[in-house]
Amino acid sequence: MRAAVIQEFRAPLSLETVPDPICEADGVVLKVLACGICRSDWHGWVGEHPKVRPGAIPGHEYCGEVVEAGPLARWKPGDRLIAPFILSCGACPECRSGQTTTCRAQRVPGFGEPGAYAELISAPHAHTLARLPGSLTPALAAGLGCRVTTAYHALTGRAALQAGEWVAVHGTGGIGLSVLLIARALGARVVVVDVVPERLAHALSLGAEAAVNARSGDVAAQIVEITGGGAQVSVEALGSEATANASLMCLAPMGRHVQVGLPTGHTAVMQINMNAVYMKQLSLFGTRGMPSWRYPALLSLIETGRLDVRPIVAREVPLSAASAELAAFDSPRPPGVAVITDFRG
Ligand SMILES: [Zn+2]
Ligand SMILES: [Zn+2]
Questions:
Q1: pLDDT at 160 over 70
Q2: Which ligand sits nearest to residue 99's alpha carbon?
Q3: Which of 114, 122, 268, 273 is the one with CA 20 to 30 A from 231?
Q4: pTM for this structure?
Q5: For residue 94, how far is its CA from the centre of ligand 1 (angstroms)?
Q6: CA 156 to ligand 1 center in whole angstroms
Q7: What is the mean pLDDT of the chain?
């Protein structure tokens, strides 16, 4: 099969013919229909991710058509499926409690095993995959990727967002945009923060009530002013120390901070304002992914028209363009994400 391989960090991906993947007993092999290009892939491509070494095939945001099913998998060839990025075992105590994103035997294609920047992918633990609704194109399904699923679980499964509450969104990349759209669908009010004027304008056009340019002074003070005392929920979607602190400081008393951004740097250790946590009696949530049993709830929001995810996918690109898309994460980008939909081009 044809695949894009990291042979050298920060160098263009190598387009190679590699052996087809082997189907695992509880897994499937998918013909990849679409694969999202994500900031997490960039972390691997620059050499910051411990599980991404030369020889790796990136790609963790994929949907595809089953070409082979293992004897323990309940799918059959021809089924069209969408995958969560965390493939959970289903058997460990965390999985049995429903908290499958903390599975102790989890597998994550693209990080330590071959990903979906390729014509085919082996997806083990296929019980975690969900059927791709006919109303969702492969590009949009892949665009849900880690961002829409993570945003949905962050707001509903972690922060327990209520209609009428204010949500502050720090960073309007794919995850931040997803948080905005889902929070609006759930009846919340949204203020967005970014440094790219074009992205702030885009967020306003999609229903944000206010936008704060982080280069224009004290972000937290501006949000406290806009929301009349602070946001009830604040989502940090960048992973930097400055934004994590702005997120804590912009909250109302008893507010909930959700850490969605993958902390940057090799150690990811940050200095955060614990006095704000103490004095305002804040709650801090970490979150990563979405348990796959929540797909029906998320997909029904989309299928009933309450959540329109089309603004999230900016463009469809061939596999040969993935290198340029990764390199573009080095600097602030225009809104929307890229999805690979042509694996021969
Ligand atoms: Zn498990
Ligand atoms: Zn991702």
A1: yes
A2: 1
A3: 268
A4: 0.93
A5: 6
A6: 22
A7: 95
